[in-house]
Amino acid sequence: MKSLVSHKSWLCLVLVSFFLPLCSEAQEEDLLALLGEEEETVNFTYATFKANRIINLHSVENTAKGVLDIKISHRFGFLNGGFSELFGLDQASIRIGADYGISPKLMVGFGRSSFEKTYDGFLKYKILRQSSGAKTMPVTASFLASTAIKTIPFQDPDRENFFSSRMYYVFQGLIGRKFNESLSLQLSPTLVHRNLVRTSTESNDVYSLGLGGRIKLNKRTSFNIEYIYVQPDQLAPGYRNSFSVGFDIETGGHVFQLHFTNSTSMIEKGFITETIGNWLDGDIHFGFNVSRVFTVN
Amino acid sequence: MKKIISYIVFAFIAITNINAQKYFTKTGEISFYSQTPIENIQAVSNTVTTVYDTESGNIQWAVLIKSFTFEKSLMQEHFNENYMESSKFPKASFKGQITNHTNVNLQKDGTYTVDVEGELTIHGVTNLVSTKAIIVVEKGAINATSSLKVFVADYGIEIPSVVKENIAKEIEININAEYEELSKS
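^ inputs. structure came back:
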């Protein structure tokens, strides 16, 4: 009798041990969950803007390390030139430039503008990167320092002219945030220092605040807008704040930026302190920036 | 009393068995390759998480799209931003089974070719796929490699006409994982 019970219990155990693995097989198991919670990684935000310029203003984007970005930028004449000027297309101001990424955080660039035959060079350094996840940072922040040398003959050749009088310096902070896939905004407090100004009423140091943003219309096109507020009484009468709207169109290795702006110059000291166009009078330039990247190393 | 002890012993054996059945790694390698006459594009990630259940033959893996690195940084940006939309679909994953897993003898060193089938999810789109894999057993360790070709269009990934010549319609995916035993702690 005793041995029978024990047999029964063994039989029971054998049956159970057969069914156990079957049970585990039957249920659709999430195997990866067995590895436990995933470690949270730092999720850096990328592509706040499509290009390293919004329109005229620098964006918080850097040229990637080892990448050479050749930029050809045009601003045609004012649209209100009418038919005889083919709405400004008869005239063109051009800047040819190259940007290069030295490290993931540091980029340099130089260019030459036909407007006032100006050479410019800059460096831009990324201080903060917007991120979520293990490390949260609400904004991307960069610092830009740029120098321009105007090489057209001095206005008054009879006075004593110094080479330093041709020089302009710009210091700019860039604070940008990608709010979501489509909307990015940026603030750019800027100081433009001019070694020589035309009249004593104008300031050598000009403080301004640039505002820029973009809205993505689809994966490869965005609508961009920027406005630069210059604190009053720093510039001579007649100078206006720069306002521009445009589109970024991306195709593989190119970004085409097409825009309308009241600024003629494409470098900071120019479009911030020397904009004369009035949007309401039709003093609007059609223009474009074409960027082509080459991976150098 | 004897009955209770034997129950406990059996339960113990059953539990340890289940433990020994699962193998995993968090550092599997996955790469993909697009070949066209104009350019070849390649990207790799070394952070594939995968678990293989030797008992049932079930196998799963997942990888973060953002972990793929490219030779050209702009490609990487476009890959995440335009093609894979990695902020919307952060992971690619596979959930399936080695249908003839009983052919693999983990106690014996050797190379086994097996059939795998299951659901591959890329860009939020899930498709049934099947392929072959090679399992190499050496001193109790498992190495698995597999290769698979998928059509970009099957996963709802649009390629604009300007770069149509640069990106292959069919992409080759290679995966390689060194599994280790999963012990519950």
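Chain B touches chain A through 44 residues (CB under 8 Å). Chain B is about 15% helix and 50% strand.
thumbs up if we can close this ticket
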